[in-house]
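Dear colleagues,

For the upcoming journal club I promised to circulate an example of a predicted protein-ligand complex. I picked one with nicotinamide-adenine-dinucleotide because it came up in last month's discussion. The inputs are reproduced below in full, followed by the predicted structure.
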Amino acid sequence: MNGTLTKPYTNGTSVKPSTNEILVQPQQVLKADADGFLKHNVLDLFSLVGRTIVITGGGRGIGLALAFAVAEVGGNVAVVDVLSEPHPHFRELEKFNVKVKLYKSDVTNFEILKTTFENIVQDFGRIDGLVTAAGICPDEPFLNRKPESVARCMNVNVLGTYYAAQLAAAQMQLQDPIKDYAKRGSIVFIASIAAYVASKGQTTSDYCASKGAVLSLAKALGVELAMSGVRVNSISPGYMMTDMTLDLAQKNPHLGAIMTNEPPMRRMGDRTDLKGLIVYLLSDASAYTTSEDHLVTGGIHAGRLL
Ligand SMILES: NC(=O)c1ccc[n+]([C@@H]2O[C@H](COP(=O)([O-])OP(=O)(O)OC[C@H]3O[C@@H](n4cnc5c(N)ncnc54)[C@H](O)[C@@H]3O)[C@@H](O)[C@H]2O)c1
């Protein structure tokens, strides 16, 4: 193990493997163990003990709640955020007796982010998982949008996700898996219900487009990195209660009412609603799940009663 990110990453090589190298031969299939499920206890499958998970945008909001989920099942957490001062809850992560550290960085600047990832590897020794929760959501009519502002949204939401995934996957290629079953790593992007439907009461054209891109990126990378043992999935939350959305609802009560009434379940999501899913996706419990989006919306994606 070393702290550099210099090796090529796809499949340990930058050369495409031949079809013969990829295909599993029939005699190998017959050697496979059909009773493997007897050896894997479900509580062990969900454990993140000894693993290091990087969370971009984990200084507050959804990312911070996901940091709690990771720490609660024994994972170490490296948070990457532009904030100098995280939400006060961040300090409570220490009580889980795992390693936790905040790195002030910017996901839109590849060189700065690369140095941050190198520092994380130096401090933690490895990267087993990545969650990309850094994101922004401008709300302005399409015809008024200025190029710089649209570019900013794309830079944070799309390129920031792309860069972080590339840096994490590069490091994962250099490491031996913690357990054989774990393979090399798991990457989870936070997309949004906005990748599927426009948000009622909001004008968020570039945000919707950016989340569509994040969702497609997870699908493409899940396939490209599958043979190298890195899984890539996304989560698409609906309206989640965070400081940001509560602030929005306070400034615009009409929007607060929409966010509560739109979901068929008639409530906003609590960040608790994402904790089980993130542990599932980061852990060995989801070892055969990749390139998939997971909607957590209280039912909005399926339809609306009103
Ligand atoms: N809150 C919701 O209802 C909701 C719903 C669907 C999807 N999402 C997505 O979930 C993610 C988190 O949202 P949230 O509600 O927690 O928002 P938030 O604003 O509370 O948190 C976002 C975090 O990202 C950080 N960040 C922003 N730009 C950054 C950059 N350039 N580099 C590093 N960090 C940066 C911020 O400092 C902040 O800590 C976002 O991608 C958002 O689009 C949120």
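Two points we might discuss: The pocket of nicotinamide-adenine-dinucleotide is lined by residues 56-57, 59-63, 81-83, 106-108, 133-137, 156, 160, 190, 192, 237, 239-240, 242-245 (CB under 6 Å). The domain at 42-241+272-297 is CATH 3.40.50.720 (Rossmann fold).

See you all on Thursday,
B. R.
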